[in-house]
Specification:
mainly alpha; 2 domains; 4 strands; 53% helix; rod-shaped
Length: 177
């Protein structure tokens, strides 16, 4: 039996040359996305009243949701929890404005915040269509959020941030030691 001891140098990320840093970045490209990085976004959606059932950021490029609560309840939660500059906030506000207009349209003209019983069928038809459009908008908003989160997590900035936070050592070839 032989014992061989191999000696080599290790470096902190900031001690590497630019070429070595590029090797590290290439080898660690998925360091932030090799786990369920989307869990926070899924949890937020659930808190708002809908469930993200799946997404694909590649060829199919979609986000599929199931509305647990009504469109109005979801929109109200978004208004409470998202800032005015968020697209979701703007879309939720727009949905609620359209909803109010729809209720007024099918009211008796006196009680404008209530659908008249003679108009319920027509209201339900239009309300279902409005909620379906809101669902499609939410799916697109959350697809974009997921894409932006993925793009950030795989960016040089985010990869360097996690490398430095974990104080990794690297070989000259860019491997974590």
């Amino acid at each position: 039996m032989k014992e061989i001891i191999k000696k080599f140098m290790v470096y902190k990320y900031d001690e590497l040359t630019e070429d070595q840093k590029l090797k590290v970045l290439e080898k660690q490209a998925d360091i932030n996305v090799d786990h369920e990085w989307w869990k926070y976004i899924y949890g937020e959606a659930k808190d708002l009243g809908f469930k993200i059932e799946g997404f694909d950021l590649d060829r199919n490029n979609y986000c599929k949701i199931k509305m647990i609560d009504s469109g109005c309840e979801i929109a109200e939660e978004i208004i409470k929890n998202h800032g005015e500059s968020c697209e979701t906030y703007k879309h939720a506000k727009q949905f609620l404005d359209y909803w109010k207009t729809l209720v007024e349209k099918y009211s008796d003209g006196i009680n404008k915040d209530q659908v008249h019983e003679n108009n319920e069928y027509e209201f339900d038809q239009d309300a279902d269509e409005l909620e379906e459009e809101f669902k499609k908008t939410l799916q697109e908003d959350y697809r974009i959020m997921l894409q932006q989160e993925y793009d950030y997590l795989t960016s040089r900035e985010a990869i360097e941030e996690i490398i430095k936070a974990n104080d990794y050592d690297f070989t000259e070839d860019g491997d974590i030691y």
